[in-house]
Amino acid sequence: MNYYIGIDSGGTFMKAALFNAKGEQQGLARVSASVINDKQGWVERDLDALWSNAVTVIKQLIGTTQVDPTAIKGLSISAQGKGVYLLDKQGKNLGYGIMSSDSRALPIVKQWLAEGKAQEIYPTTLQTLWTGHPVSIIRWIKENDFERYNQIGAVLMSHDYLRYRLTGEVAAELTNISESNFFNSITGQYDKSLLETFGIEEIWNALPPVVTPQQQAGKVTAQVAAETGLSEGTPVFGGLFDVVSTAVCSGINSSEETLNYVMGTWAVTSGISKQVTEESHNFVYGHYAVDGEYIIHEASPTSAGNYEWFADYLGEDGELNHAENQALVEALEPASSSIYFIPFLYGSNAGLGLKSGFYGLQSHHTKGHTIQAIWEGILFCHNVHLERMRQRFPKADVLKVTGGPSSSLVWMQMLADLTGLTVEVSSLDETGSLGAAMVAMVGAGEFTSLKECSDTLATGSKRIYPNRDNYQRYQKKFKNYQRLVELFKQFEEESDV
Predict the structure, then answer these.
(1) Class in CATH terms, 251-497
(2) Mean pLDDT of all residues in the chain?
(3) Angle CA 33–226–439, to nearest 5
(4) Which residues contact 272 (CB under 8 A, 6 or more apart)?
(5) Over pLDDT 90: what percentage of the chain?
(6) First-residue to last-residue Cα distance in the chain
(7) Contact 240, 160 (CB under 8 A)
């Protein structure tokens, strides 16, 4: 039996899972991934610590599964998109990695938006403008740390950096770099005119060669083999943007009849298409793991991370408290309280710089009401994205959901009732790791295509159907939520004056 490792480098944890060629999980190791928040809006990672986390989970995985490392035929990585992980011209770390949730470049992005750059670049990039894009962060570095800017030797994203440490080879993976605003989505290549538009043309030579997800991008070095227990020469494949990894595991395809919901730190709604269409809204198009297909998605950092922050703030303790919280919400009438929660702790999907908050709290409200409002607010933020996506995917009638909240039937029933759509929850827990392992399987020749791999490794799922009696209740509260967000926007704008 051949085996494959998928590494999932997320915002909260670093995980490594071992799968056999049937897609059966043989073992899992994980460690907490630390984040550095030294200044308002700055979200960074120590790159050596990130690599140390990867070494730890690989070593633990191999040590606990007792699989002969020579039977591991490939390894790949699924990781957060965007952000910037820089090497200098000697291939050494150039400062901390800057994560996609970093917002230090907010004034720069606001200026670009005012100048009309978003509309100027969209026909070329099929991307929007926001603070987590590499172009925004690099422009900030140029303006605020010119010495560092002049030392840039390679511009990487998270999984590119980890792959570099595994192999010593510098490369940028397609599904992630295609959403960087360096990339001409029509030609499928970097575009120097884009760098000129953003005033960062000096880094042109620091843009790495592009590799596809299933393409072998190097081999495990002798030094890494000694550190981790991997076999020297183990093939390492391109990898995936984690949104793509989840879509691959969900089984959505270019029939455009299903959408994928990711509920984590980020609220992501994705669909797959072979077509780029003109719409009233500028959708984000990224190159998918299947040739000739695009992943189209709406996203913002407004999802379950807001609830996790709240749980940590109260000193909640793991699955037991989450089960108790679920019971508290289940006991309440759907959408019945006057409490609204705006889940903008990590960013907004309604305007740059908006902040989080509660409205409507009164003395008779219980902990259950508060948790219900948090869950509703997160679903409402997802619904903002879904309403736009349904313009692009009018045939979609099923939401395939992944992420922590998918384990809560109460929360998933709320989602079905709000949207009026059937919710499908996969039995898979580790979609990031499995998606990475799947592209390694295809790259190593275990399967001839990602479709064959996906069909062969098909897993079970559970369906939750909407309660039509609750639909109007949720829609009414959702409309009120939108009105409240507009008031937040008005307050923020007037406060800036």
Answers:
(1) alpha beta
(2) 93
(3) 60
(4) 247, 252, 253, 254, 256, 288, 290, 293, 294, 295, 296
(5) 76
(6) 66
(7) no
Tokens of 269: 């709604």
Whether residue 241 contacts residue 81, with contact meaning beta carbons closer than 8 Å, is answered with yes
Kindly report, residue by residue over 95-110, the tens digit of the pLDDT: 999 998 899 999 999 9
Give ranges for CATH 3.30.420.40 in the chain.
3-238, 251-497
Give the C-alpha separation, 62 to 27, whole Å: 9
Query: Collapsing DSSP states into helix, strand and coil, what is residue 364?
Result: coil
pLDDT above 70: residue 318: no
Token pair 């050596």 is at which residue? 48
- Report yes or no: 377 and 306 within 8 Å, Cβ to Cβ: yes
Amino acid letter at 249?
C
- Per DSSP (E only), the strands in 146-293 are 152-156, 172-173, 183-184, 189-190, 210-211, 216-219, 235-237, 240-241, 258-263, 267-273, 284-287
Residue 14's beta-bridge partner residues?
Answer: 9, 31
Is-contact 311 209, C-beta < 8 A?
no
pLDDT at position 34 is: 86
Is 80 exceeded by the pLDDT of residue 312?
no
Question: In this structure, what DSSP letter does residue 230 have?
Answer: P
Burial label for 445, CB within 10 Å (0-12, 13-18, 19+), is exposed
Query: Are 92 and 73 a contacting pair, CB within 8 Å?
Result: no
Interstrand relation of 398-403 and 422-426 (parallel, antiparallel or unpaired) = parallel
Cα 287 off chain centre by = 15
CATH superfamily name and code, 3-238: ATPase, nucleotide binding domain (3.30.420.40)
Q: Do the beta carbons of residue 18 and residue 24 sit within 8 Å? A: no
Longest dimension (CA), the chain: 66
Q: What are the distances in angstroms from CA 250 to CA 176, 194, 244, 258?
A: 19, 33, 10, 10
**Residue 51, token pair as written in the block:** 């690599």
**Which region among 15-19, 69-73, 305-309 has the lowest average model confidence (pLDDT)?**
305-309
Q: What pLDDT score was predicted for residue 429?
A: 76
H-helix or E-strand containing 471? helix 468-496
